[in-house]
């Protein structure tokens, strides 16, 4: 039997329909769990993340996130439910469970309606959904050839390529906002953003879309998204898309307060879900418009949340464990808000310690950082290219058991020619802090860099 063509599939997969009692009892989130100790202890945190490699100081939560054992156990239950009886899972469990997860996301981000929330694989998928409808508007003549899309220069690499792939080929003009780094204030970002909007509106063009990061990835800086969205409204920008891949669980998210048209964030980076799951928020007035999942299924045309809820046979378990993540968060004092506060304070403390040790600087003031912060590396390391940055990152992993991204920040021409050019900071470590991290992790990075400096190491030694 093909479930796609069966009338019962429509009824069984209706998110508004109540699941039967047996189906609800089968769902992992419906089972009564033993009360968890509160507050969670350090020993219990270590147990939750005992699967991490003990030989590695993992101060790079930002790249792939982290999933506690209690949540991965819940994921395994969902996977086994599917394998045990796939038809029962498809007809009776999947859609009600996805709806529960969407309702929780709605509350987390202060959305008005659950129909504004779609669950997708990651923020890159969400970007494709938004950009495809922009591309169609160009091809169909709703937008004029040469109209602009504005994005930050530090937009995530795959999102930048997606913008060019969907917009440039459709006849749109892409403008990058050249953000300063190191950065000292929101005003610097606002100034450059206004200049980019003015360029986008030159010669009678319209700015059709602004793509704004909430937290840039590399270098990592918290962007004043609410103010930039307000400026977009004043300047007549048609739509605002916030790429907030790092945001949920890292900074407070209130989509009504930010007031953008679209907002996406990964739930597997800072919200303890297993990879890969993200949400895409679409304002209610836009949620029913021409938004579609890139994978076309038999649910095409029934609204993005429904389309996203079934894209064919695949593992949906990462989208179903959000209730289990909430249970994990409830074991912490003040929940996710308390975790955010602790992570921010600790990463700032460790960042300042490292900058003082290496006699360098932070890449931004603490208030412009989240649970990640950029720390300048000693100039003597000779980080003079992106290749150097990647090589020294690999060297730290292979020789010292430290996992941390390294960013190459090319100096301006006048800095190269200045009298202090030999002491320029051109490399920055992006350190993260998550609940499993301990101070020893950062001490290992400190000691590794100090040893390299003492031994006269330079990146040229790795490329020869």
Keywords:
464 residues; Aspartate Aminotransferase, domain 1; seven-stranded mixed sheet; 12% strand; disordered N terminus
Description:
Residues 1-35 are annotated as: Disordered. Its EC number is 2.8.1.7, 4.4.1.16. This is Cysteine desulfurase 2, chloroplastic. Residues 101-286 form the Aminotransferase class V domain. By secondary structure, this protein is an alpha/beta fold. It has two domains: 104-326, Aspartate Aminotransferase, domain 2 (3-Layer(aba) Sandwich), CATH 3.40.640; 335-463, Aspartate Aminotransferase, domain 1, CATH 3.90.1150. Helices cover 44% and strands 12% of the residues. It contains 20 helices and twelve strands. The chain has helices at 7-12, 21-26, 42-48, 61-64, 69-84, 86-109, 123-139, 157-167, 186-200, 225-234, 255-258, 284-287, 304-308, 317-320, 322-329, 335-358, 386-400, 413-417, 439-454, 460-463, and strands at 57-58, 117-120, 148-152, 173-177, 207-213, 239-243, 262-266, 278-282, 372-376, 402-403, 406-408, 427-432. The strands form three sheets. The chain has a seven-stranded mixed beta sheet with strand order 2-8-7-6-5-3-4, with helices on both faces. Strands 9-12-11 form a three-stranded antiparallel beta sheet. A two-stranded parallel sheet has the order 1-10. Helix 7 runs parallel beside helix 8 (157-167) and helix 16 packs parallel to helix 19. The radius of gyration is 23 Å and the shape is globular. The termini are far apart. Mean pLDDT is 91; it is low at 1-23.
